[in-house]
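Table S2 (text version). Query chain:
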Amino acid sequence: MGCGTSKQLSPPSSGGGGPTSNGNPASKTATANDSRIIDNEIERAKQEEEGKIKMLLLGAGESGKSTIFKQMRLLYGTERSDDDLRMYGVVARSNIVVAVRKLCSHLRNLGLEEELDRESRENEELEEGDHSSMTCRQAYDELMAYLVDNTATASAQDPMA
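Corresponding structure-token output:
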């Protein structure tokens, strides 16, 4: 164990000087050179470690520790590649779909679909002649068909058809 690589030790010389001193001045120079290289690497690693700023984030679960860490990395970390940005877009879209799916399912489970009908009627009365936009109930029905029930037809899924 140690900082350097393992070396096979040469058998001790008959002079009794041990494995590192076999009487060869070139061997002593190589050992001193290896030691200097290791010392330089340790010093470089120490300098690099001293340049880092460390922060300890404490808090209960779900208190935002990971969010703070991610935000610091976004603000002060390395620049994001195009692949990273694409991946973030995929994750964001996936999170939105999951959230909308949950909201639609909860609306159904809580029996609040009638509230959407009531809200749609109230909006129609206020807008009178403007029927260019979807009602809340129509949007809900489409979301349910696409995301929850998986009953949307191929022609409904392709707006160009």
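Notes on Table S2: The longest helix spans residues 82-109. Residues 84 and 90 are 10 Å apart (CA to CA).
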